[in-house]
Amino acid sequence: MSAQQLRRALTEASVGRSGDEAIQEVAAAYIGFVRKHPGLYEAFFHAPDRQEPQLVMESAAALDLLLRLLQPYSLSEAEALHAVRGLRSLCHGFASIGEKGGFGMNFDPDESLQLTVTAFLDGLRHLHKA
Fold first, then answer.
1. What is the pTM of this model?
2. How many Å apart are CA 119 and CA 125, to the nearest integer?
3. Fewer CB atoms near the end CB (10 Å): N or C, the chain?
4. Residue 106 phi/psi, 5° resolution?
5. Distance CA 6, CA 123 (A)
6. 8 Å CB contact between 113 and 94
7. For 69-80, what is the mean pLDDT?
8. How far is CA 3 from the centre of its chain?
9. Of all helices (H) and strands (E), which one includes residue 129?
10. Are 10 and 62 in contact (CB under 8 A)?
């Protein structure tokens, strides 16, 4: 199942890492999965159908992973869920644009991803400093 493959890729990318490094590696693994398996990704990218227990289980496992990785940022439960949505949207958008050939400029898209995730993480750190 493709959702399981993606969740495994994200889990493997996070092993032995925490904080910014873990999130950066997970984002890179997400993009890497889409690059390697664009058809699989498109086939399952939707809200989990409650009639597909395996997809629901894999989605929940991926959510749990991301929530654990976000713990160092001292977010409330609601903020953490919003952050997961934001990170997922960032990765999906980045992957989709890349797959459609939208990164035609002479800049390394992997460096662009790293800079974008860094800005996202800086924003999470500053949530409680305002």
1. 0.90
2. 10
3. C
4. -85, 60
5. 26
6. yes
7. 96
8. 13
9. none
10. yes
Of 75, 66, 61, nearest to 26 by C-alpha is 66
110 Ramachandran zone, left/alpha/beta (phi>0; psi -120 to 50): alpha
The answer to whether 99 touches 34, Cβ cutoff 8 Å, is yes
Tell me: the pLDDT tens digits for 19-66?
999 999 999 999 999 999 988 787 766 655 667 788 788 889 999 999
Angle of helix 19-36 relative to helix 2-14, nearest 10 degrees? 150
**pLDDT > 70 fraction of the chain, expressed in percent and rounded:** 92
Take residue 44 and report the two structure tokens written for it: 């399952």
Is 54 within 8 Å of 67 (Cβ atoms)? no
3-state SS class at 48: coil
> Contacts from 98-103 at CB under 8 Å and sequence distance 24+?
98/31, 98/34, 98/35, 99/34, 99/35, 99/38
**Torsion angle, alpha carbons of 69, 84, 30, 16, to 10:** 0
Tokens describing residue 109: 């898209």
